């Protein structure tokens, strides 16, 4: 296996990890997580791209079995959805903008970043553009574009998409996700969400997230 092939394998797993972690922040329905084989796939991906987070991924799968869907959904609402004050708001602007407001300056910057890639808001998604799910799935999209370039051996284009990933990570995800994860851990005793916060925090701040090509 040559270097390009090794990079493709690595980046495919990294893209999967962003997508699977994003999926765990959707409204919890255990059967859907299991049908997607989400837990096993996440652990397998992390073994390659972020071994430090594997133990927490295992805890995610183990702990979810301790709760009914109703219990998970109640804690999900308290943390992320409302109707009461959110214990861990899942919006970047709350952590990045003065006054902990939603749809602030940073949200507008995120929207511009999406639009530069030709992306608009899906009619199926009713939440805000800087929601944790959207930003994680946008990273998945950027890695997917990098992979498409690598498959074509277009190194210059792949490098451009890696630069876009690094910019988005450094400007947004690195700046607010650690605080968001801490809020989760302060706001709940639910082992599933605590394990998810630990896993996400380790994954997103891993130095190997910032790539470069020769």
The amount of helix comes to: 55-70%
CATH class: Mainly Alpha
Strand-pairing-aware structural class: mainly alpha
- Per DSSP, the total helix count is 10
Strand content: under 5%
Identify low-pLDDT runs.
Answer: none
Rg result = 17 Å
**In sequence order, what are the helices and strands, one letter per element?**
HHHHHHHHHH
Largest sheet: none
Distance between the termini: 18 Å
CATH architecture: Orthogonal Bundle
Overall 3D shape: globular
CATH superfamily: TorD-like
CATH topology: TorD-like
Mean pLDDT: 93
**Oligomeric form:** single chain
Question: What's the number of domains?
Answer: 1
Please count the beta strands (DSSP E, at least 2 residues each). 0
Explain this structure.
With 214 residues, this protein is mainly alpha-helical. The protein has a single domain, classed as TorD-like (Orthogonal Bundle). Helices cover 69% and strands 0% of the residues. It is built from 10 helices and no strands. The protein has helices at 3-23, 30-35, 38-49, 54-64, 69-81, 92-96, 105-116, 132-151, 155-187, 191-205. The longest helix has 33 residues, at 155-187. The relative contact order is 0.15. The model has no long low-confidence stretch (mean pLDDT 93).
């Amino acid at each position: 296996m040559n270097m390009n092939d090794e990079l493709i394998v690595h980046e495919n797993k990294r893209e999967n990890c962003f997508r699977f972690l994003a999926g765990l922040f959707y409204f919890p329905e255990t059967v859907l997580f299991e049908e997607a084989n989400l837990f096993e796939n996440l652990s397998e991906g992390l073994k390659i791209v972020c071994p430090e987070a594997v133990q927490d991924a295992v805890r995610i799968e183990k702990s979810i079995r301790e709760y009914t869907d109703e219990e998970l959904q109640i804690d999900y609402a308290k943390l992320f959805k409302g109707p009461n004050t959110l214990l861990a708001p899942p919006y970047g602007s709350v952590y990045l903008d003065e006054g902990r407001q939603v749809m602030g300056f940073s949200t507008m910057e995120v929207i511009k970043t999406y639009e530069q890639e030709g992306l608009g808001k899906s009619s199926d998604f009713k939440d805000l553009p800087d929601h944790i799910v959207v930003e994680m799935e946008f990273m998945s999209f950027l890695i997917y574009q990098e992979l498409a370039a690598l498959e074509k051996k277009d190194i210059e284009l792949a490098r451009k998409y890696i630069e876009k990933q690094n910019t988005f990570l450094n400007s947004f995800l690195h700046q607010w996700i650690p605080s968001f994860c801490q809020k989760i851990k302060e706001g709940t005793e639910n082992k599933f969400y605590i394990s998810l916060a630990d896993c996400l925090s380790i994954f997103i701040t891993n130095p190997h997230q910032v790539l470069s090509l020769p």
